[in-house]
């Protein structure tokens, strides 16, 4: 575990950026449905609204930010394509967006990333270079790939274009449901949470924002409690999309707007994932189950409240479901 210094003078996206992003990406994304379950509400003691980004194009919310970045490129920059490093959902979302624009997409992925996500990246036309499952290896291999291709770097979350795109998700929630008492979303690098903070602080400032994280990859929790970015190099958790650390832009939003970071154990995550599969009848991945796991663990915090829950993605390896031995 290492402490990471923050960098000032970064461009922080604004509400105008979210509005522009929504207009830019509308032709390429779904307005995803919001589902409810009386059974889960009774378990939680709260009224939960599940925003189903697992039903999004490319199977994840990340297509919002990826499309905003890709379709915001000038023609000159677009010719060399885009590049990124990602454990899965950003990789396949960027590949999808690049394919829709007809430009190359280069992706560095951990060799341990789910096969389903690797297959999806290749299916959308992305070119994969594998790295070891650590932040240091990922960034080292990516530097080489970018130098060789000259492609535009679209960071999975520490990118103002990506954060603005992710902000369109909570914009849709408020437009459909009005202001809620709280919204809970998973946190890894913080792109979704940052977009949520940006949107809700503007159009629903009374809504509390909670970040949900695995106990075994609790760097955002440690950062929030200690008041500075804490980064783990290679945490191990079933929630494979939440292993990466916060960066400067996302830390700005987390440290400014998040009410609290809540933790869930591996078994609690698996139990919540199975509950959603059984009751909502939808396919979603372990990372997406962390918010419900934390709500059920902290019933007093959410008792009687109207709570938005972001189901971030559905790209799960069906041959390796976590409750199968």
What is the strand and helix layout of this fold?
Layout: E1 2-4, H1 15-25, E2 34-35, H2 38-44, E3 47-52, H3 62-71, H4 75-78, E4 82-85, H5 89-101, E5 105-110, H6 115-123, E6 127-131, H7 135-149, E7 152-153, H8 160-177, E8 182-186, H9 191-203, E9 208-214, H10 219-226, E10 229-231, H11 248-257, E11 260-264, H12 266-280, H13 286-297, H14 299-302, E12 306-311
What would you say this structure looks like, in words?
This protein is of the alpha/beta class and 325 residues long. The chain has 2 domains: 2-61 and 160-320, 3-Layer(aba) Sandwich (Rossmann fold), CATH 3.40.50.1100; 63-153, Rossmann fold (3-Layer(aba) Sandwich), CATH 3.40.50. The protein contains 14 helices and 12 strands. The chain has helices at residues 15-25, 38-44, 62-71, 75-78, 89-101, 115-123, 135-149, 160-177, 191-203, 219-226, 248-257, 266-280, 286-297, 299-302; strands at residues 2-4, 34-35, 47-52, 82-85, 105-110, 127-131, 152-153, 182-186, 208-214, 229-231, 260-264, 306-311. The strands form 3 sheets. A 6-stranded mixed beta sheet has the order 2-3-12-8-9-11, sandwiched between helices. Helix 5 links the parallel strand 4 and strand 5 (105-110). Helix 3 (62-71) packs parallel to helix 5 (89-101). The protein is globular, with a radius of gyration of 18 Å. The protein starts with a strand and ends in a 14-residue tail after the last strand. Residues 1-7 have low confidence and may be disordered.
